[in-house]
């Protein structure tokens, strides 16, 4: 890469109410004006995303784009007080940022937004609001439904990541602005910590799909999004449902691209990096520069059709091939219906019933909910240990290959012995040797069997019906392999279990598995992104290398524990000399016989140093429960100087009723 681009390390974006947001800008060589690319995040441009930003915005600036990376209010070096994710403040500020960028003499008024996860979310949400300068979006690992497909709830079940993510943001938001940029950094730092929102508790107060979650969920009105959207994700990521949903529902140009990747931009994936830069540049060249490069003629849905490999928690490349569907929904997808019977399937509806009980610790082989956030050791493993503890239905070995593309659906008729119960459905590819690979999964809180907005307690013994749309998948089952449906009453630690052990009775006359079977005679060109090309990296002075561990063990009383530790290392930034270090420890425990023993603890540590200036932040977080309540506790302790003089220590505690969770 050349060094002709100009980097503005920090500038201030003024908002109408007088607050200033901190921005870093990469300007192309030349006189301009240029189209612009905005990335709008709370993860700190100065240090948090700086290594990743070096690999993206510098490349895009070389391609002729003015790139702007902005810290959200109350984060990084930006002024103000952070309130919540995707809040009205965040989105209205985002409109102000877009208007400011469009008014600069180096911008031609055409802006695209890019982002992964948080930035992918607010890119879509900003498009929903239709600000005039926003002309196109590249959204990676995002959602169109904040209740159904984020880190809070799945099928009305509480995800443990609701507390885990809140704990991570608790640590992130406690970090100070850089004294080089903010003379008021110390008073602002203390004010930030004093006013940290307890987001896990706030989110738990909204256990149903109410107006809180509808805000920012663009599926509420697909017609509101009228700018071109390129939606990208990876099969190892938690956010797999949005790209095909966008391709199917948006009226304007919308394309879905799903690779083998985890929760990272594709060019830095550890599972088979793809050429993210070319995809982004081609998309924005078409919609921001007006180049007639044909992206609108790309297949609606390009994806990596996975095959069976040896699943393990460590990062390993995936097996499969790239495919494409010219239109989505596709005429190449046919419904294949299987009816559970005994421990297998029939091609006709059956009768009888099956009783389901499973221990609370089923799910140990499920991996980390959102792979890509840890150092390593976070992917789903061989599902066989969880399968043994579940109720399973197996097909005979395949006499010919079977390809699945889309969202499998499971219809169930059931009764339960408790007013609150949950069910987890997993679809697995079982190789001839017995290794079971998870294809897709989904949980359902059975009190939500008719509605996520108006759930109701279950009457023990009464018959109900429900349908579960499992997560999007693309999988090729080879000849001789077995398709397995595994059902369980819990899925710890991904899903927080119900308060009591339950027994579910499946009434087989009302049960069916509907597979989106892909049958294609003439494959079209997949137009896959190809391998990642060379890109610049931030050449930091590494003072402590990253490392990570994961350990599972059994206590004397039978409690099963998962302990993980991720040291993200310690490094000095070459541009401004800031030294940053961080690490996190996570602890999950549960007794197989008692779901109310579920416990999660996580502790974060951050350190910042520069030329005699030194601060450290330690945060501790614990969530426990019983059959009636959730108990949430957290503490922040901040120190200053080499002698660790205490600046602030503060605790919060919340008790919230479980209700129907």
UniProtKB/TrEMBL annotation:
Alphabetical list of InterPro entries matching this protein: AB_hydrolase_fold, CocE/Ser_esterase, Galactose-bd-like_sf, Xaa-Pro-like_dom, Xaa-Pro_dipept_C, Xaa-Pro_dipeptidyl-ppase/CocE
Keyword Repressor assigned: no
GO molecular function (one): dipeptidyl-peptidase activity
Cited Gene3D superfamilies: alpha-amino acid ester hydrolase ( Helical cap domain), alpha/beta hydrolase, Galactose-binding domain-like
Name of the top EC class for this enzyme: hydrolase
Superkingdom as given in the UniProt entry: Bacteria
Key words, A-Z: Hydrolase
Ranges of residues in domain Xaa-Pro dipeptidyl-peptidase C-terminal: 281-514
EC number: 3.1.1.84
PANTHER family the record matches: COCE_NOND FAMILY, PUTATIVE (AFU_ORTHOLOGUE AFUA_7G00600)-RELATED, PEPTIDASE S9 PROLYL OLIGOPEPTIDASE
UniProt name for this protein: Cocaine esterase
